[in-house]
Design goal:
Blueprint: E1 3-5, H1 11-19, E2 27-38, E3 46-50, E4 53-60, E5 63-67, E6 71-72, H2 84-97, E7 110-119, E8 133-137, E9 146-151, H3 157-171, H4 194-204, H5 210-220, H6 224-228, H7 249-258, H8 264-271, H9 282-296, H10 300-311
Parallel strand pairs: 1-9
Antiparallel strand pairs: 2-5, 2-6, 2-7, 3-4, 4-5, 8-9
Length: 319
């Protein structure tokens, strides 16, 4: 009876199909990239103002994330990639705000891009566009029962979701339920004090290398032991996927069985930290594909295709 469109940067494209023409809501897509470089700061995050804009220098996994850009993106959202000129522009801004760093393209280990789905409010640039959210009822455009959650950002997404659910419940004639999500930790978030939590992870996963222990605790929080239990009967699933990464085979299984991963790219880029610092090495990708193959009934040809398709998604960041 009700469909809620939460397609993010693709929301207006979905609307165009649902409404049979020009969508009733238009988006301004803002492209942002981040770059991973060797550690600049290990304990502090920096926000730097430079020429009317700002950038971040963030410690992360023993490295530093630099970000982010904010430029209009006119292409299809499927096509978003961090281009060489994007990286150069961002490094120029970082070196302008922190000239002593002297970072160049050869320092960039990895880069990735995303899109902000902004409500098109006629702003002169995507940087100045509103980050507000809207819940739109499309009944007036002839699509009764269709709602869209448009705009917003990560820090406001829970509240946007609450408003959307309230609206849907009202449309269905249901009594509004008092939401708990404003107070309840996200799944795995109930870790308590972080030092004590890390000690618990180390004690329960004492057979794993310290890097793998850290990765399990960081990715899964209080659910780390549930992920580790997936390796029951096959201790190799708790071993890192290669000598160059800390992610384990159990993480791959968890992605498939519990997080709806359907291809290797899901696992590498969207469920684990496997591709978060750049190409993890072909042995790690092949091992992950091998584990997935048993779950997804892939043959050797399909497994090889999955690896090839993932390798093509890693940007060439070096000069």
């Amino acid at each position: 009876r009700v469909t809620l469109n939460c397609a993010g940067p693709w929301a207006d494209l979905l609307l165009a199909k649902a409404e049979g023409g020009d969508p009733s809501v238009h988006l301004l897509r803002s492209k942002g990239i981040h770059a991973i470089v060797p550690a600049i700061t290990r304990t502090h995050a920096l926000t730097v103002q430079h020429k009317g804009k700002h950038f971040f220098v963030l410690p992360w996994r023993g490295h530093t994330i630099l970000g982010t850009t904010d430029t209009p993106f006119k292409e299809h959202p499927d096509a978003v990639r961090p281009l060489a000129e994007d990286i150069d522009d961002m490094l120029a801004a970082v070196n302008g705000g922190l000239p002593f760093l002297r970072i160049n393209r050869s320092d960039v280990l990895h880069a990735y891009a995303g899109l902000r789905p902004l409500v098109d409010d006629g702003a002169s640039s995507s940087y100045n566009a509103s980050r507000k959210s809207e819940i739109v009822d499309h009944a007036k455009s002839g699509a009764a029962g269709l709602f869209s959650a448009i705009g917003g950002k990560w820090t406001t997404s829970r509240h946007v979701a609450e408003k959307a659910v309230d609206l849907v419940q009202a449309r269905l004639g249901q009594t509004r339920k008092n939401p708990k999500t404003g107070e309840r930790p996200l799944p795995g978030g109930a870790t308590g004090r972080i030092a004590a939590f890390k000690s618990t992870v180390g004690r329960k996963l004492n057979t794993l290398p310290s890097g793998a222990q850290e990765a399990m605790g960081r990715l899964y929080g209080a659910r780390f032991d549930a992920v580790a239990r997936l390796a029951a009967g096959d201790a190799s699933l708790l071993s890192p996927l290669s000598n160059s990464v800390h992610d384990t085979g159990a993480a791959v299984l968890h992605a498939v069985r519990m997080e709806m991963a359907v291809n290797l790219a899901d696992v590498v880029f969207r469920r684990t930290g496997l591709g978060g610092l750049g190409h993890p090495g072909k042995p790690a990708l092949e091992r992950a594909a091998q584990i997935m193959a048993r779950e997804m009934n892939w043959d050797a040809t399909e497994s090889a295709r999955q690896v090839t398709s993932v390798e093509a998604l890693f940007p060439v960041t070096a000069a």
